[in-house]
Amino acid sequence: MNRVICDIKDHSLADAGRNRIDWALTEMPVLRSLQEQFTREQPLAGARISGCLHITTETANLVRTLKAGGAELLLCASNPLSTQDDVAAALVEHYGISVFAVRGEDNRLYYRHIAAALDHRPQLTMDDGADLVSELHKNRRDLLSDVIGGTEETTTGVIRLRAMAADNALTFPVVAVNDAMTKHLFDNRYGTGQSTLDGIIRATNILLAGKTFTVVGYGWCGRGIAMRAKGHGAHVIVTEVNPLKALEATMDGFRVMPLLEAAVCSDFIVSATGDKHVIDRSHFQVMKDGCVIANSGHFNVEINIPALQDLAAKTSRPRRFIEEYQLADGRRIRLLAEGRLVNLAAAEGHPATVMDMSFANQVLSIVHLWNNGKKMENKVHPVPGSIDDKVAIMKLAAMGISIDTLTQEQQAYLSSWQEGT
Fold first, then answer.
1. Is 220 annotated as a binding residue?
2. 128 is in an annotated binding site
3. Is residue 267 part of a domain?
């Protein structure tokens, strides 16, 4: 058995963490099936994997599956506020997995933990935001020759990795798990939609019905947030820079306008763009008194927090996850969860059901890289269609849903061009 090393908050939390991990697994039938298959087949025997991920109950079941397949794992956190300390303890104490993650860790400790993950000399990487891969290329280049490939879980990380590839800086292939159809259609839309509102409601306990709720960005995550806010009875506004997405939001029944206009009347503003300072000083200067602002993008740069701090005459903490900034004219702006991922910082992240598909993609993509990475080009690759289809088929089967299949006649018709009207 591999030696377990760690830096976690409290080992005594392990039993509570195991109970929650087992609870999540009841909603993850695809991963359960893969665990059984991996235990028999050992497709990752001998693989060293370092993961920079959100340390949650669902992630625990992801790494349990990889370990069942023979992998040697070390985990660190991909966000200082997303670690569930009881889960970290359970992974170390009950599942023999090395973990370096403490909820609330400062920037110095965060990067020290990433360094520990790299000290593992990974052959495969798993990232959520690309900090592990970025640090590997910037400061630990001596390790690059060991790396066969990696996976990336979120939009922000895929954007960073594509920029690296465009600069010819990426030295190994990465599979964009985020872009799998069974990931962004369900995890990003239904998972982010529900968990973001869950975080906002837990943090504020403010009724959404009748409030004006602005969503900044109408990608898959923004679509989900807008959909769920509308379901709560909120009046939803969408702001966008992409004309096609703005048109789609309009056709979906949402009001679309510039954020500078929306800020004047919004009770809630939530960003989900993957970009920097999308909620900025100019918006704070006209924002409605009492407006709640939150971020559901990966990094805490979507809200220009330094500008908000500069404008504030005083600050207070009325509730655990709320920092209230009072401006010179008396208006109050309420920032949730330090501008970090509100669904993980103020709640528990995505429901296990959707993460079942996302992490099944992650697991199968890791096996794909282990078997094929040395032959793949050093760029960002899509999840193979066969993996996407397999995950969908397994999920449908677990839900007890059957679908039709094409007849030979129908298959022949779709593959030919001769037959017309």
1. yes
2. yes
3. yes
Q: Is 223 annotated as a binding residue?
A: yes
Tell me if 218 is assigned to a ligand binding site.
yes
Task: Say whether both 67 and 23 belong to one domain.
Answer: yes
- The enclosing domain of 21 has a CATH number of 3.40.50.1480
What is the pairing mode between strands 124-127 and 149-152? Answer: parallel
Q: Is 72 annotated as a binding residue?
A: no
Summarised one tens digit per residue, pLDDT across range 112-128 is 999 999 999 999 999 99
Q: Same structural domain for residues 158 and 202?
A: no
Task: For residues 306 and 327, give the distance between their C-alpha atoms in angstroms, rounded to a whole number.
Answer: 14
* Ligand-binding site membership of 86 (annotated): no
Q: What is the pLDDT of residues 47-58, one digit of tens each?
A: 999 999 999 999
**Three-state DSSP class for 152?**
strand
pLDDT above 50 (res 1): no
Residue 240 marked in a binding site: yes
Annotated binding-site residue? 188? yes
Tens-digit pLDDT profile for residues 394-421: 999 999 999 999 999 999 999 998 887 6
Which residues form the domain of 122?
A: 6-183+350-398
179 appears as a binding residue in the annotation: no
Distance CA(229)–CA(269), nearest Å, equals 11
